[in-house]
Specification:
Number of domains: 1
Radius of gyration: 16 Å
CATH class: Alpha Beta
Shape: globular
CATH topology: Aminopeptidase
Largest sheet: 7 strands, mixed
Helix content: 25-40%
Number of helices: 6
Strand content: 25-35%
Strand order of the largest sheet: 1-2-3-4-5-7-6
């Protein structure tokens, strides 16, 4: 895995690099497999994001050394310091190489979260394996949507790091 610092910039739909990254992800067959329920064309997706400009702040482009790797959609409850990760999507060339785990750990650290919650579709085997490797525990299932909800006490990650 390439060395450097991750950055998490709010998605800027006027930035061609951001739009190109989103477009690549939108048309990626692996991403389409678990987002097929949205049935949107990319241009409709951008229009929807623009109409919900308040939601753009929860979408961030993940970059390493100024090179986009993917994007993250998340929210933080300021009172409880709980980070809700709705999804992290990496470009195909960064999958299976440790970037997902590194991004999760770095992003959690950068926000100083105390607890992390994620929802993962049952068909997303790679994300489910990653969540298990980080110590996430299942706490709820939504049979209708096919999602499983996991949570993680951040102290668990910190203890895991100390014991290495």
């Amino acid at each position: 895995m390439e060395e450097g610092n991750f950055t998490y910039d709010v998605v800027d739909l006027n930035n061609p690099t951001h739009v190109e990254c989103l477009k690549k992800l939108w048309h990626d067959p692996e991403v389409q497999r678990w987002t097929n329920r949205f049935h949107l064309y990319f241009e409709d997706y951008l229009t929807e994001l623009l109409q919900k400009s308040y939601a753009l702040s929860s979408y961030r482009i993940i970059s390493l050394n100024n090179k986009p790797l993917g994007y993250i959609n998340s929210d933080v409850d300021a009172n409880t310091k709980t980070l809700y990760i709705h999804f992290i999507v990496l470009l195909e060339e960064y999958r299976g190489k440790g970037f997902g785990k590194a991004v999760h750990l770095d992003y959690i650290d950068s926000l100083k979260a105390k607890e992390v919650r994620v929802e993962i579709h049952e068909s997303n085997l790679a994300s489910r394996a990653l969540a298990a490797s980080l110590g996430f525990e299942e706490y709820k299932k939504d049979q209708e949507e096919g999602n499983t909800y996991y949570k993680l006490d951040v102290d668990k990650i910190n203890n895991m790091r100390r014991n290495k």
